[in-house]
From TrEMBL:
SUPFAM superfamilies: Thiolase-like
Catalytic residue list: 89, 336, 366
Domain Thiolase N-terminal: 5-249
Record's protein name: Acetyl-CoA C-acetyltransferase
GO molecular function, one term: acyltransferase activity, transferring groups other than amino-acyl groups
PROSITE patterns: THIOLASE_2 (PS00737)
Keywords: Acyltransferase, Transferase
Pfam families registered for this protein in UniProt: Thiolase_C, Thiolase_N
């Protein structure tokens, strides 16, 4: 099988839903990172065969095949196609998988994997409002027959995880505080500078709260009475975009590109859709088994902090060294622009491996429907 390489990885700062990036049209968010990816890699844009872009709420300004409109909005060649995909929070990680699979199959040589989400302009769940507004059930009869009329949501899933693994509110808040501490240290220390393409006067991630504390977190109300989940231990509603260029060995040589990482393993697993957030655990086991690696071989892990119990349970079940997991903070501090997050995490992972000299990196995240992607890469 042919090899697939990451030869470029760039992202916007992750903005807050009321920050400066919230006024930027999603197509322009995407266009910004696409133009910067082409500039940084020096690739002939006309040689790019496809743009695969993750976006979750594909409605309004995020409708009409955002991948294609973002590429054209960037002023890039009309000959390059684009497709927009939705695997919920893992949408742009799946974009990386599809791009790599196209290259590894030998049918493509240069593919962009990207993600965009402006949650300030298009609220989470906006594309499901059609059903609600027209008195149509979001789930059909077959689903209800199988799972009943119980609530299906990421919020309930996070609470169910707390109950299953025995996490108390204090456990979650301590994890969240550490996420902010690591993120503030990384941001203020310039660790993200090389991977970020500033936009709209913003050059740094906006969501980090270096002045937060356990006392401040303790003052927040839980999402529901008796729950351990509060806003402090959940990912932030955000705005952002990211893009990576995936290339074959032939393209690397022919276009004079510089590989940053080699794709080692691509895995995908489904798990309980009611718990929703647990699939990274079995998905990681499968990915490590298929790659022939152990958890101690992984130098850096990026796991999306949708809610604090997700990484806590993953660390507990895999035996990973907590110091190697989200070493520069995660979505609790840095934000979670849904369809963009997969590409953002991969961009962070690639750059962190090069900063530290680590060899193997692993990325995973929970996804709606009880799914998870796992990607293993090797620094080049």
């Amino acid at each position: 099988m042919a090899e697939a390489y990451i030869v470029g990885a760039v992202r916007t700062p992750v903005g807050t839903r009321k920050g400066a990036l919230a006024a930027v049209h999603p197509a322009d968010l995407g266009a910004h990172v696409l133009k910067e990816l082409v500039r940084r890699t020096g690739v002939d844009a006309a040689a790019v065969e496809d743009v695969i872009m993750g976006c979750v709420s594909q409605v309004g300004p995020q409708a009409l095949d955002l991948a294609r409109t973002a590429w054209l909005s960037a002023g890039l060649p009309e000959t390059t196609a684009g497709v927009t995909i939705d695997r919920q929070c893992g949408s742009s990680q799946q974009a990386v998988h599809f791009a790599a699979q196209g290259v590894m199959s030998g049918t493509q040589d240069l593919v962009v994997a990207a993600g965009v989400e402006n949650m300030g302009m298009v609220p989470m769940g906006a594309n499901a409002r059609f059903a609600v507004d027209n008195d149509i059930p979001v789930y059909g009869e077959g689903w209800t027959e199988r799972y009943g009329a119980q609530e299906i949501s990421q919020f309930r899933g996070a609470q169910l995880m707390c109950e299953k693994w025995g996490y108390k509110r204090a456990d979650l808040e301590e994890y969240a505080l550490e996420s902010h501490r690591r993120a503030a240290e990384a941001r203020d220390g310039g660790r993200f500078d090389k991977e970020i393409a500033p936009l709209a006067g913003v050059a740094r991630d906006e969501g980090v709260r270096p002045d937060t504390s356990l006392e401040k977190m303790a003052g927040l109300r839980p999402l529901r009475e008796g729950w351990a989940i509060t806003a402090a231990v959940a990912s932030q509603i955000s705005v952002g975009a990211s893009a990576l260029l995936i290339a074959s060995e032939r393209a690397v040589a022919g276009h004079g590109l510089t590989p940053l990482a080699r794709i080692v393993q691509l895995s995908l697993v489904g798990d309980d859709p009611v718990y929703m957030l647990t699939a990274p655990i079995p998905a990681t086991r499968i990915a490590l088994e298929k790659s022939g690696l152990g958890i101690d071989d992984i130098d850096v892990t990026e796991i999306n902090e949708a809610f604090a119990p997700v990484p806590l349970a993953w660390i507990e079940e895999t035996g990973a060294d907590p110091a190697r997991v989200n070493p520069n903070g995660g979505a609790i501090a840095l934000g979670h622009p849904l369809g963009a997050t997969g590409a953002v995490l991969m961009t962070k992972l690639v750059h962190e491996l090069h900063r530290t000299g680590g060899r193997y990196g692993l990325q995973t995240m929970c996804e709606g429907g009880g799914q998870a992607n796992v990607t293993v890469i090797e620094r080049v």
